[in-house]
Amino acid sequence: MRYPWQASDWQRLAANFERLPNAWLLSGPAGIGKREFAQEVARSLLCEAPQADHHACGQCQACHWFAAGNHPDLRVLTPHGDDEEAEDGKEAKAPKRKLPVIKIDGVRNVIEFAHLSAHRGGRRVVIVEPAEALNPAAANALLKVLEEPPAEVVFLLVSDAPQRLLPTIKSRCRQFPLSLPSAAQALAWVNEQGVEDAEAELAFHGGMPLFEHDAAEAALRKQFVSGLTECSMGSVLSLADAVDKQKVALELPLRWLGKWLHDLAALRLGGAVRYFPAQQAAMQRLLPRLNIHALMDCQRELTALAPYGQHTLVTRLQLEALLMNYLKAFAGKPT
Amino acid sequence: MTYQVLARKWRPKRFADLVGQEHVVRALSNALKESRLHHAYLLTGTRGVGKTTIARILAKSLNCETGTTAEPCGVCQACTQIDAGRFVDLLEIDAASNTGIDNIREVLENAQYTPTMGRFKVYIIDEVHMLSKSAFNAMLKTLEEPPAHVKFILATTDPQKVPVTVLSRCLQFSLRNMTPQQVAGHLAHVLDTEGVSFEAPALALLGRAAAGSMRDALSLLDQAIAYGVGDVREDGVRAMLGAVDQRYLFALLEALADADGARLMQEVEALVARGIGFDSALAELAMLLHQLALAQTVPDAIAADEPERDALFALALRLGAEDVQLYYQIALHGRRDLALAPDEHAGFSMTMLRMLAFHPAQGGAEVAPRAAAQNRPAPGAPQPAANLAPAAAAPSPARALLANIGGKSAVTPPAAAEPLPAAETEPEPAPAAALAVAPPAADTAPLPPADLAPWHEAPVAPSAAATAPMLAVSEEVDAADTVDDEMVELPAAGDADGELAEYALLQAEADATPAEPAVIAFDGDWSALIGQLGAKMGAARMLAQNAALKLWDGEVFHLAVPEAFRNMAGRDFQDKLRTVLGEHLGRAVQISVSIETLDVETPAMRDARFKREQLAEARLIMQNDKVVQQLVQEMGATLLAETIQPVQE
Lengths: 335, 649
Ligand SMILES: [Zn+2]
Ligand SMILES: [Zn+2]
What we know:
The complex is a heterodimer of chains A (about 325) and B (about 650).
Chain A: H1 7-15, E1 23-27, H2 34-46, H3 61-68, E2 74-77, H4 104-115, E3 124-128, H5 136-147, E4 153-159, H6 167-170, E5 174-177, H7 183-192, H8 198-204, H9 215-230, H10 233-246, H11 251-270, H12 280-286, H13 292-305, H14 315-328
Parallel strand pairs in A: 1-4, 1-5, 2-3, 3-4
Helix pairs in contact in A: 4-5, 9-10, 9-11, 10-14, 11-13, 13-14
Chain B: H1 6-9, H2 22-33, E1 40-44, H3 51-63, H4 77-84, E2 90-94, H5 101-111, E3 121-126, H6 133-144, E4 150-156, H7 164-167, E5 171-174, H8 180-194, E6 197-198, H9 200-209, H10 214-227, E7 231-232, H11 234-241, H12 247-257, H13 261-273, H14 278-297, H15 309-318, H16 321-336, H17 344-357, H18 364-367, H19 397-404, H20 454-457, H21 461-467, H22 495-511, H23 526-533, H24 541-545, E8 548-552, E9 556-561, H25 571-585, E10 590-595, H26 603-624, H27 626-635
Parallel strand pairs in B: 1-4, 1-5, 2-3, 3-4, 6-7, 9-10
Antiparallel strand pairs in B: 8-9
The structure holds zinc ion (2 copies).
């Protein structure tokens, strides 16, 4: 499917359909529908009777297969959720992080697939998503086929963080940055999904409409934020407690606090907020006590903790220490 | 039909069509003319400069039916089949997808048979750095004594990963990066031939953006043609390339110079709207700040034809030299931490807010460390250990602080040293304490002159923390000798402290008179070696500290640097390091630096580990101290374990 805000992207693509390269890099922030766009491009490339605007017909055998998720000329290369991480023993000790990677075996399968003859129509499509998940061996193994694929093989790489791709990969792709939705488009979309508090949720997700909505998580976040607003020893301690009880990974409260600190700093220095517009007035009341330099310190502490965001161990201690730091940003004499 | 991308369509088929590799072409042509053929060649260079292309042309030269020649005919069966990729005696192996020993063995077994059609069996092994160790070993034997009819052409972007035993059996050619002018010139030729109209400045922009790679340039050109729908115009290319256009960055810095936060945030939004990547924006911003510092200190270093020259000098007048330094640091750190931010937008705009927060108009100057502490750090004194996440065994800091509330004594916040998250690629929680990012170059580095920099004379907060173990107790007690009674209430250390302190240390080290120039034979202990060299390396020490020595062959130091420290591996630091090492060892040495994931400890990682160990030990000592225990038990004191710092000499 294609989202409403991708109409111009589609036109941009369609206008150049005769010059379609064999390797694309679709990029843009998370939550704007890159994967779906790639799927749509793939569907159109494989369709046997595409429409004038190059959209797939939805009727032909290829479209039926595609809809059923078993088109034989499409491969989607994504990280496997398999657990056997520690291949070389020395990494076994390291705290386990859920960093999904695409390994070389997957790439080898894709290379084999690219050299097979097609089932239908002659075209074959490979989607790699997210491309930054390719580990170094896998990325290197992809280079050759990416540069000189067999005729009629198209690669669609999808990435939130193209700067993390090997330069040799990027060098072989045509970059295609996807458009962001306008504020109105994004809000309309979120409303359609029946998300409660759509406006606030959308703002918290930076205006990117395709977030996974989890009501329990949103409730916990609300509680967290109100504790931050109250900004007392008791309130922040109960936050650490609440988070601990829910057994969420440190990552979540770090993200909440990170955005909260951003907004406090942005409000103090720039007069506007981004993630918590509903709390702007409450933040405003905190400003007179705010020491901006101490806030920056707290933010740095937070960044230092970020690599351990997947831990569920000692979340409480870490969080308490961090929240103490947060309080210090308000400890100064009122100015 | 899929369209054949320009990079593929325009892959040169003759040496004469190659751009920018004349030195290699000349050497190969002469060798071919005089039939002085080596049995194995290694072509190295960055992406898209022509390694595979040269390998294929060489294969034609060796097998052209008109005879071994530097100008293969291009029409005979051998030439056409090689061009079409189906010549039986040319075996092109992609080492990256065939890394295993089985593949290599199969290929090598094949090598003993005489060629079917041509004069030579040619093996092109691309991305050869990806071969496994055992595959390299299997190859070695054939490389040592190849049959006369076999030629190997190896190609790699990363020769550091190729074993010396293999390297030494190959005739090596290093391909050069292409200059923006060479690239633009070639693009013009391509577009003329393709019948696509263009504006010359657009090609100059593409030439710059290609960063030395013709394939990048041609990929970008494809994108530009698509973007302009068949035309290549300057404004279109500008918009397409985004961050390479410095105008947005100037707008950001002007808002900063005016301390206008609202406008700053608007400029951030404008950047987003243009689809500019935050990562490249921060990289470009750091480069611009470097330019600004140069404009302030060495105006002559700014080229007369620098496109934004006027804007640069106007801005240089409006920003303080120290501010520029500080912003540079913040930009580098901000970029490094981008992946750790809640989202990249927050990471980027927080970086800009941090700059603003330390703007003089925001009281940044008052917070500067000059006010902070008392004693000057000894030159070369190790920096305080990073403020680590509290250990599980530590008492809850919350309880500790609660215990303090209402108490008279000042709670001394630990002066935060640079908290350093482990690099994203490195799962070990090993925050390197010396993650200081040095100014770009030792000699041309825009370090403010000492007499203009008050913070240089002044001691810095973190060092005070490092020299005084701190103990916060709930009552005012005489905490024996373990507590420095000069304990002062330090302002919380901000970026200004941490980052300026790093400068102060660097500067102090650079100023220190060089110590005994004893010549010591190098025994392979990299950490020890750079420990000895110390201040002599100046800012290049940052490179040395964050590099692991992979190999020392008596002539070349093969260093590996993790991705996170890429920006320290610049030419100037390498040159400086080479000079210092050469002087120290009493002979010329070479340095080669590769960016890769490390499996060896760098000196900085080792220092960080030592500091962690010291810290753990110091905490243990404090916790087990009789006096402290007595205080805790009898007077209700609480030991703030995380504030304890080991004493540094
Ligand atoms: Zn169809
Ligand atoms: Zn020929």
